[in-house]
């Protein structure tokens, strides 16, 4: 009797607060409103309370009400930052195409400062140095042997192998962040035509003519799936003007060990992205059609600009050279147990041009245990406050506490701890197509039992974190 693969279970989005589910800023705003109301009552009585309502009532509303899943007090700094960036002109980027950019540096929208690029001494992998973040990132092209058509035993083995890969990364103290990025890129029919052009014997038979006609009808607009894994490790100290050869060699040993760990999950590391190919990989996140045309040209065309020649960040979208992007955050994973292939509608939607990025940050065991202890104390304090005010504990609070206890038990048992963030980038050619593309993605996310939220006021940062394979920190 065959059984299905082992079910996957996810923790709930933590909503703990300082007091009765309210965060520190919310408690401060509510306390200020109550203080003003109390002072008005003591000084002027009921009339003073009514007169001062114009002050304390908005404070109470701002401290207790949420809009689009975000407390009102959390909207204030976001709106202020957005207005300031627009006023200073930091939402628009224009790059001159007259001068040839330095291949050793990268200036990209959404990333402060300049990134430096160097080559690893042995593998030739492109090492992207971010001085501000203190990280060095390498990008690997990865392929697998399939998953959805495997039997339950094989799927369980591959899932367990991927878990061991994550555990290996957790044990590497030098690893800061790991990003798994899968995207649909144009040019799905081009490899077929190239293979046929190289292997066609030109016999002129009936079968040869049929195959040639089929290959000729393959649409150039067809998409193909591309999977990249980026690993960000801590940059060595005393960098000077760049990575020293001995430091690069040490980092390469770490990357080699991480690459070998992929074999246990039936994954194949096709190649590390080299400096000369880095521009094309990054360019595809901004102008996928142009990048695909450059790849399929009869002669090799160097990518002069890895980033866009122009970018405009709007409240809920990012415009680049020939594309419009909208970035979503996966706010809630499936709340019930589900099969490991639950992301199939999101990843394999036919004709959809989107990028799904999973960012994992290893959390040291000591810090994770401190967070768990603090969370347990907050739950106990909230429970005591609810008893005093007569508030009934809801099922969501109990489920969150159960997740916290399960996480503690797994840490005590020797497992690692990772903080996951998932970002989904929808890419279309024109602004008129964006609404349809976003609606299709939201439908596929609902089929995957995921709750997604469109990020606003920070699309530039979100695109850099979710669409670029640079293992950037989550928002």
TrEMBL record:
Keywords: Membrane, Transmembrane, Transmembrane helix. It comes from the Bacteria. The chain crosses the membrane at residues 18-42, 54-80. This is Uncharacterized protein.
């Amino acid at each position: 009797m065959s059984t299905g693969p082992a079910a996957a279970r996810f923790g709930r989005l933590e909503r703990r607060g300082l007091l009765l589910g309210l965060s520190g800023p919310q408690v401060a705003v509510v306390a200020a409103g109550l203080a003003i109301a109390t002072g008005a009552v003591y000084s002027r009585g009921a009339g003073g309370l009514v007169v001062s309502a114009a002050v304390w009532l908005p404070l109470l509303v701002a401290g207790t009400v949420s809009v689009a899943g975000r407390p009102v007090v959390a909207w204030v700094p976001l709106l202020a930052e957005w207005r300031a960036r627009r006023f200073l002109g930091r939402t628009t980027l224009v790059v001159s195409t007259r001068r040839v950019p330095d291949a050793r540096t990268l200036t990209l929208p959404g990333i402060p400062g300049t990134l430096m690029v160097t080559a690893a001494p042995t593998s030739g992998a492109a090492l992207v140095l971010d001085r501000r973040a203190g990280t060095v990132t390498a990008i690997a092209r990865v392929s697998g042997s399939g998953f959805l058509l495997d039997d339950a035993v094989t799927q369980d083995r591959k899932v367990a192998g991927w878990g061991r890969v994550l555990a290996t990364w957790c044990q590497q103290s030098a690893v800061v962040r790991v990003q798994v990025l899968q995207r649909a890129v144009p040019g799905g029919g081009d490899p077929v035509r190239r293979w046929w052009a190289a292997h066609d014997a030109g016999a002129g038979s009936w079968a040869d003519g049929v195959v040639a006609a089929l290959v000729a009808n393959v649409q150039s607009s067809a998409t193909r799936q591309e999977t990249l894994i980026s690993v960000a490790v801590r940059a060595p100290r005393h960098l000077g003007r760049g990575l020293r050869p001995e430091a690069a060699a040490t980092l390469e040993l770490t990357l080699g060990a991480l690459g070998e760990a992929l074999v246990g999950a039936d994954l194949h590391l096709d190649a590390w992205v080299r400096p000369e190919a880095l521009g094309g990989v990054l360019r595809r996140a901004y102008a996928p059609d142009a990048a695909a045309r450059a790849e399929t040209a009869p002669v090799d065309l160097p990518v002069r600009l890895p980033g866009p020649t122009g970018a405009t960040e709007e409240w809920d979208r990012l415009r680049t050279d020939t594309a419009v992007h909208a970035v979503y955050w996966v706010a809630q994973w499936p709340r019930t147990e589900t099969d490991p292939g639950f992301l199939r509608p999101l990843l394999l939607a036919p004709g959809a041009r989107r990028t799904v990025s999973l960012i994992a940050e290893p959390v040291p065991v000591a810090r994770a245990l401190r967070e768990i202890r603090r969370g347990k104390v907050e739950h106990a304090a909230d429970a005591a406050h609810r008893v005093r005010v007569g508030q009934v504990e809801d099922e969501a609070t109990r489920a969150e506490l159960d997740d916290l206890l399960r996480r503690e038990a797994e840490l005590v048992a020797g497992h690692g701890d990772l903080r996951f963030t998932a970002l989904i980038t929808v890419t279309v050619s024109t602004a008129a197509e964006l609404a349809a593309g976003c609606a299709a993605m939201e439908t596929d996310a609902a089929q995957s039992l995921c709750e997604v939220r469109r990020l606003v006021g920070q699309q530039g940062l979100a695109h850099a974190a979710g669409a670029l394979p640079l293992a950037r920190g989550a928002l």
